[in-house]
Amino acid sequence: YAASVKDGSQYFVLLIITDGVISDMAQTKESIVSASCLPMSIIIVGVGPAEFDAMVELDGDEVRISSRGRYAERDIVQFVPFRDYIDRSGNHILSMARLAKDVLAEIPDQFLSYMRTRGIKPSPAPPPYTPPGQPVQTQI
Question: For a pLDDT cut of 70, what percent of the chain falls above it?
Fold first, then answer.
């Protein structure tokens, strides 16, 4: 879907929940490199006790991900290990809030990076929402 939208009218977020096992790392890296020019971000949440070294590599925060000598145009992957957010003290609301914050942390910069590199400017704001049955107020 993301490949069909180039005008900045839509931006996509793919959420992947995984146990950390990647059956084809080369193909996964190739897909991410190809998707890095599209209006999309990828969030990966790792669950379970597995080692997530491969997921950290896909995240690309330390080293830009590459495949067959081609580097990703931009960082589009955010990896978060779920186990880091399990609160043993019982404060699940706070731990889930931290998880949500970190899962979404890179989306604004990834979105802006896509728009800026393509010279896409924000559209004017739509008019305020008026609930059905309410009189429309106009300013003179």
Answer: 94
